[in-house]
Please model this.
Amino acid sequence: MQKNYMKPFAWKLFSLAFTMGAIFSSNAQSVGTQSFTATGNDDDPTTIVVTTSGGNLTINQGQPIQSITISDFYGVDTYGDDTYCGDYFGFTLNVDGSDVITEGCAIDMIGYDLTGASTITVTSVDMDFWSEEVQIGLELEVTYTTPTCLMPVNGIVDAVTSSSADVSWTAGDTETSWIVEWGEAGFTPGSGIGTQTVSSPSISIPGLDPNTDYDILVIADCGSGDESYHLTIPVLTACAAIPAIAFCESFETDSPNLACWSVIDENGDGAPSWYGYNEYMWTFLNNDAWGDNIARTGEYTAAIYTDYNSGANDDYLVTPPMTLTGNEVMNFYYRVYSSNEPNDFRVLLSTTGNSASDFTEEVMPLTIASNEEYQLASVDLSAYSGDVYIAFHVPAGGEDGWLLMIDDVCVDICTPNPGIDGDIDACRTDGTIDLGDVITSDYTNGEWKNDALQSLINGSMLNVAPLNGTYTFNYIVTTGCTSDTTIATINIFNPSSAGENGLITTCKNQQIDLFGALGGNIDAGGTWYAPDGSPMASSYFQTGTLQGQSIYKYIVDNGVCGPDTSQVLVNIQNCDYLGLEDVVLENMTLAPNPTNGEFQIAGLPANGYTYEVMDVNGRVIRQQETIKATTTTVDLTGVENGIYLIRISGNDTERIARIVKQ
Model:
């Protein structure tokens, strides 16, 4: 016995069905019966609604109704017993919005005249504040005008796929032509998505959508414009096979594939419990219904209650159809509610269909589960390709158990395709980079790893701001069968640095080095540009014969972070380096010269003059100091040996003299 689970979150087993009874004709009138049933819990409540005009009352075939009477009624508990009707539960009969019988039973209902009613509603009533399963059966006897063209009967769904349906029927009389119209369930006749006239009592309808409810209306054509009322044949198309890779089911309310799971209660013992969930058959159970946190993630899990049945099970939980490629593994989690009451199950596979007899391949052997915490299981599916169904089967004759749960059923690749390593140059000022852009991988479910720098990784994003140098990061794709590692190499550069702007004060015809004026960190390999923008071969040059100021630029680019620019202002004063031996301040002398450290400036007045010490590049190494006596001692002990320039200035005169430290 197979039950396709179509409304997964109405936590009662609810069915509404009708059957046609015998039809008797006399004096252009016919009498027939139509039955309606519903099963559920009395406190939910369970309801039957019958609409007499254009609704689900169809025994009259659209003809005027002369009378309606309740010809039979039953309201019983889960054991088929009506003994407690009126004490534990009862039923309300409502006609066109008004209650005409409250807390009634069969004796109150049978024979009640409903002639003229438009809407007839029977609703269960909980009378003892305890939830009981109830079953309702309502039979209506209807007298109506006999149609001149009888409606077809006995509509049957012969075959259905994800895109087509084959249906057949029996002629209502002697007609040999039928008009068939179809559309989504509940469509208004005349507004369907397709129509066809056929001369045999069957039709194959293509072009349907997967997992969709359709109504197929069949009208008898009795000739000369005489047509019958329509026979409605409801059809639910099958689910289309979905790619197995990346399929993941957590049984939550927003799951896109939940309606495509099916439940097979092969031994037919499944039924709603007093607690609102199905017993002895697979169901989708939430934490609230069970009264405890039983889902691994979210609120719902697939579960089967088996307690007190001594192992009398034969129940299947069947996945939607999935397409395998020969490289998949299925992972899922399972647990039981009590380790003292273990459950057994196995995993089966079908390549033909989703009936119990189709599951002939065992892909996970019978397992006795006693773990109260969820445990991961993996099933290797790499031996299969094409469309398959997979079933979690609780077989007959096993453990009594209590509650077995399956959650988070996901399909992944078995052996991942190897990724391609990559490398990239990055600048610290980029802030973050996406490691996924560095490598080539078919997968997005891997994990980036670098134990020393893990705190800088967020998903696939790497914070490069604190780094400088070359680093490697591993992208690890782990599957149920193996793992693959792809390496990203990141070369991280500091921003290009041309140094800090500087100033050179110099004389005409003096050899200077522009680098000597820059401060801070300076990257080598850049280019100096003259004031006219032309590149210079070197940072060394002679100042020439003109006094004035010019700006020289240094631009350096490491090829990753973009260029950086600094500049040096060269201030050429009114002095000539080639004439420094001439006496400007005739009485000034430097002695001893050469010197080992200390020397004296002599021959100057005691006021009005200052001196400063520069290297041959014009960079000041001793800031300007005032000459306070005719003899001033200068100490160069702490500087390197070489040639230095002593600039004496004051009273609108200036002299630059050389001294050698050795």
Observations:
- DSSP finds two helices and 53 strands in the chain.
- Residues 580-661 form a domain with the Immunoglobulin-like fold (CATH 2.60.40.3080).
- The first strand starts at residue 2 and ends at 3.
